[in-house]
Amino acid sequence: MSKKKQDYDEFIEKFKPKKTTDDCYTPPPVYEAVLDWARKHLDIGDRPVVRPFYPGGDFEHFDYPDNCVVIDNPPFSIFSKICNWYVERGIPFLLFAPAMSSIKQNVTYIGVSCTITYENGANVNTAFVTNMMGDIICTTAPDLHESVKKANDDNLKQSKKAIRKLSFPDCVLRATTLQTMSRAGVDFCIKREQGCVVGQACESKKGEFGNSILLSDTATAKKLAAEKLAAEKLAAERLTLTEKSKAIIAQLNEAHAKSSYPSYVRLFSPY
Ligand SMILES: C[S@@+](CC[C@H](N)C(=O)[O-])C[C@H]1O[C@@H](n2cnc3c(N)ncnc32)[C@H](O)[C@@H]1O
Fold first, then answer.
1. What is the Cα–Cα distance from 111 to 80, expressed in whole angstroms?
2. Pocket test for ligand 1, best of 32, 50, 54 (most atoms within 8 A of CB)
3. Residue 148: Cβ within 10 Å count
4. Phi and psi dihedrals of 113, rounded to 5?
5. Residue 197: what pLDDT?
6. Digit-coded pLDDT (tens) for 19-53
7. Which of 27, 40, 52, 54 would staple 62 via disulfide (CB 3.0–4.6 Å)?
8. How many Cβ atoms from other residues are within 10 Å of residue 241's Cβ?
9. Which atom of ligand 1 is nearest the CA belonging to 59?
């Protein structure tokens, strides 16, 4: 691979959404639900609440205000190190935690069974860990489970509503259309001479996500036919006749064929 191509690939890689747990950004309604719970159940009062974990952050050199409480979602890859660092310094915290690997002797594990859908789309089984519950080594929190689940569900519904639905002209082929056709079991392809890939096919200030293929008239007709077929196949469960029904139809056809009427009468006869 040439150096130029390698640099370009590395540049593009930076913009790809990351799905590791370290890159799981918390939807604000979920964070608010956790903060509300903490205010009700932990001794926070009017102490400042801080969030030292962000891109390029350095929690060990963060400027912690006096008497503050850390409530944040940290990078899970260094979770133990973070807990120990706060415990050693007596800095109170409530942290989002990996559900299956954060039970520890010196903190309280709060098991809640919450699969949180983070901003990068990753679904992560999340628990919480705190050093603000004294000598309790582990606890459940049904109300935290309820409120985080509700906030997560509401947030997902909102995000789905926010997705723009676009309808493209017939001569524009989109990746989703090909996916739908495949799902429907429809064979379809377009030769290179019949299609041209473009970044933006239509007038739109917000732009389009991903490239489109502009189609010639012949290819457009082929696409429309395949789309129709796919829609039919996906529309409903296709029922098949019973053997008895097939036999009845065969008898009807046979009787009709043997009928004494001339063929043009048979064709239009209801009998
Ligand atoms: C799981 S994300 C959560 C971000 C944010 N706190 C939230 O709740 O949406 C963890 C963040 O911590 C950052 N991070 C990684 N190492 C860190 C460190 N040593 N100190 C502070 N932040 C760090 C990561 O870059 C990432 O942005």
1. 17
2. 54
3. 25
4. 50, 65
5. 95
6. 577 889 999 999 999 999 999 999 899 999 999 99
7. 52
8. 10
9. 20
SS3 content of the chain, % helix, strand, coil (to 5): 45, 15, 40
Ligand 1 center to residue 114 CA distance, Å? 20
Atom of ligand 1 nearest to the CA of 54: 27
Find how far residue 37's CA is from the centre of its chain: 26
Q: Is the C-alpha dihedral spanning 31, 57, 109, 134 positive or negative?
A: negative
How far apart (Å, rounded) are the C-alpha atoms in residues 74 and 54? 8
CA of 53 to the centre of ligand 1 (A): 4
Chain centre to alpha carbon of residue 112? 22
Nearest C-alpha neighbor of 144 from the set 52, 35, 11, 16: 35
For residues 98 and 126, is the Cβ–Cβ distance under 8 A? yes
Which atom from ligand 1 is nearest to the alpha carbon of 53?
22
Angle at 201 between CA 196 and CA 202, to 5 degrees: 160
Question: What is the distance between the alpha carbons of residues 267 and 128, in angstroms, rounded to a whole number?
Answer: 76
Of all residues in the chain, what percent carry a pLDDT higher than 90?
68
Q: How far is the CA of 111 from the centre of ligand 1 (A)?
A: 22
Residues in Cβ contact with 196 at an 8 Å cutoff, skipping those fewer than 6 apart: 213, 214
Q: Which two tokens stand for residue 87?
A: 């415990």
43's tokens? 């001794």
Retrieve residue 132's tokens: 């603000």
Domains and CATH numbers, the chain: 12-162 (3.40.50), 172-235 (no CATH)
Helices 217-235 and 175-184 sit at what angle, rounded to 10 degrees? 50
